[in-house]
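hey
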């Protein structure tokens, strides 16, 4: 049995079709080999959605660039594809059977901020950490005098990049390159250092 449905409210105009099959209770998404995600954020609520899609993205300081003259900050990253991971979760007894490891996906993406007046780093040394891998945990907006404020890119280990902006104007775009991985970020697991 095949049923087609669309989400009630498409995310930023992205209407995604899904194929549900009752055979082995699997869910497959009807996509081109790699449908690219493109999101735009123009307020704090949009930025929260963008943050969810960027959670656990991996980057390096050498892949972060601030163009002062253009007031632009760009960060290239390897994004964990949470929207695929959530759809393919196994249910019931199927999740207890370790017959086959679940495969997840990472994609190459770019996070792009406009109207950036100033960039500051906390807990990061550009000279020493240029090639250190950073894991992005969240993106927060702290409003100062509307619509301006600061956008904070929070990384694992307590480091952060703060962008002072005139207003929220951000884009997340998958640029190409996708690959599978069996490793899924786990925030419920206790820290081994504790």
């Amino acid at each position: 049995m095949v049923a087609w449905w669309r989400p009630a409210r498409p995310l930023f105009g992205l209407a995604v079709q899904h194929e549900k099959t009752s055979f082995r209770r699997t869910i497959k998404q009807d996509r081109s080999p790699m449908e690219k995600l493109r999101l735009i954020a123009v307020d704090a609520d949009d930025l929260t959605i963008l943050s969810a899609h960027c959670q656990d993205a991996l980057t390096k300081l050498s892949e972060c660039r601030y163009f002062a003259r253009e007031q632009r900050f760009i960060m290239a990253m390897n994004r964990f594809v949470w929207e695929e991971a959530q759809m393919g979760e196994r249910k019931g007894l199927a999740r207890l059977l370790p017959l086959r490891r679940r495969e997840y996906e990472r994609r190459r993406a770019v996070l792009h901020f406009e109207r950036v007046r100033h960039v500051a780093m906390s807990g990061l040394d550009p000279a020493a950490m240029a090639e250190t891998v950073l894991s992005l945990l969240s993106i927060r907006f702290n409003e100062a005098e509307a619509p301006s404020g600061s956008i904070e890119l929070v990384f694992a280990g307590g480091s952060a990049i703060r962008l002072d902006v005139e207003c929220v104007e951000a884009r997340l775009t998958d640029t190409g390159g996708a690959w599978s991985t069996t490793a899924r970020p786990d925030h419920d697991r206790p820290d081994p250092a504790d």
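Residues 37-181 form one domain. Residues 10 and 84 are 16 Å apart (CA to CA).
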